[in-house]
Each structure stands twice: as structure tokens, then as C-alpha cells.
Inverse folding.
């Protein structure tokens, strides 16, 4: 079984990723946590943990890791300093460590609006600029990757259905459950190694939507 490091594992989406991976036939999840007090939650659901802080040296967390899901985020309401440390610098350091470890794939949870971060509202701009710089750094690396940019996140149920586009010209939302499923799906070695797209809640099953988008490059709605 390949080891998948979940960075940002204790976040709302990160926990859903861990739950999904623990029952996956091909992967063994490793949750990167900042504090040992977070350990019990993951051990209770059968997920191994490793201590690591994006604002410090977390290189030990990458030992023996085959694939990575980066789901950490400071949030759009966090101060600029924290956003830089987590969403930009922490992500970039993660990419560098993944290269050193020769991981097979790096899946990045980004955000809609990152592509055109310079045009965002002032309240969101620092967050989206940090996401964009991290995305660009990953894109320029040698790693096989997927950059997934969801719409507004909700706590709604898992539907297993999405729509996909390079950029949507509409507002939309998607449940964290569905985002977690997409991120795990993008670990699949059968999916070509360099993908970037936006997702919203939709009507097409996740595997089929990704397959159609990958094949045509056209929106799948």
C-alpha cells in the first residue's frame, strides 16, 4: 500500500480525506498534525499520524511517503502574515520536500479565483495571491500534480457528482465531502500527471467527469 501524506489533515476537509483514504484499497493515509492533542481523533479512525508544522521544519513527515494531498489553508479571513506562512511558503516547502522524496504525485487543494487573483476583492486578494503563487510553483516543478480549485465550500452531504472546467464564469458551491472525494480520486496513477481545474457541485459522477474533462479539455457540466 502506498503511503499518502495529508497536509492539513486536522482541517474540515482534511478529516474527510483521512476518512476516505483509510478504507481505500491502495493507500495508507498518514495525517500530518501540528499538535499531539490531535492524535487521538485520527488513531480512533485507524489513521497514522506524524507531527509537522508548516511554519517550521516538517521534513521528517515526508519520510517514506509516496503521494501527497495538500489540504492546508489559513482561510481568507486570516491575517496576511499567517496566509503567507501557510498557503504560500508552507505549500512551496511541501513541494520542495516532495521533490526530494521523489513522491509519485502531489495533489493541491487550491481555490477558485486563484487564476485571476490580482482582480479579486481586496478582502480576498492576499489569500488568492498566496494560493496562486503556490500553484505556480507546483506547476513549474518536475512533479506529477493535480491542482483542484473548488467553489464555495459547504458542509452538505456527499453526492459523488460534480461539474468541471478550467475556469467557471458563474458562482457555485460544492460540499467538502465531494471535494475530498475528488482529491482522493486525483491520486490515481492512471490519471495523467499534470492537471488543473475548477469544480462545482454538478450532475456527473466524479470519475466520469474527470475522465471526460481530461479527454476533451472542455467543460463537463
Amino acid at each position: 500500500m502506498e503511503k499518502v501524506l495529508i497536509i492539513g489533515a486536522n482541517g474540515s476537509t482534511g478529516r474527510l480525506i483521512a476518512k476516505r483514504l483509510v478504507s481505500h484499497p491502495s493507500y495508507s493515509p498518514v495525517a500530518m498534525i501540528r499538535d499531539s492533542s490531535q492524535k487521538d481523533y485520527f488513531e480512533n479512525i485507524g489513521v497514522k499520524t506524524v507531527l509537522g508544522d508548516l511554519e517550521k521544519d516538517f521534513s521528517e513527515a515526508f519520510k517514506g511517503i509516496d503521494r501527497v494531498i495538500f489540504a492546508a489553508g489559513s482561510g481568507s479571513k486570516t491575517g496576511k502574515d499567517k496566509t503567507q506562512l501557510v498557503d504560500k511558503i508552507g505549500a512551496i516547502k511541501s513541494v520542495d520536500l516532495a521533490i526530494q522524496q521523489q513522491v509519485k504525485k502531489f495533489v493541491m487543494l487550491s481555490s477558485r479565483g486563484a487564476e485571476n487573483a490580482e482582480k479579486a476583492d481586496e478582502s480576498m486578494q492576499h489569500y488568492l495571491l498566496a494560493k496562486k503563487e503556490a500553484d505556480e510553483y507546483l506547476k513549474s516543478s518536475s512533479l506529477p500534480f493535480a491542482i483542484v480549485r473548488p467553489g464555495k465550500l459547504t458542509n452538505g452531504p456527499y453526492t459523488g457528482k460534480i461539474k468541471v472546467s478550467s475556469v467557471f464564469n458563474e458562482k457555485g458551491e460544492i460540499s467538502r465531502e465531494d471535494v475530498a472525494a475528488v482529491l482522493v480520486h486525483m491520486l490515481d496513477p492512471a490519471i495523467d500527471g499534470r492537471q488543473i481545474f475548477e469544480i462545482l457541485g454538478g450532475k456527473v459522477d466524479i470519475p466520469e467527469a474527470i475522465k471526460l474533462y481530461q479527454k476533451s479539455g472542455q467543460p463537463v457540466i
Notes: The CA atoms of residues 4 and 198 lie 23 Å apart. The longest helix spans residues 80-101. The helical segments are 12-22, 39-44, 80-101, 122-139, 176-185, 206-216. The domain at 2-216 is CATH 3.40.50.720 (Rossmann fold).
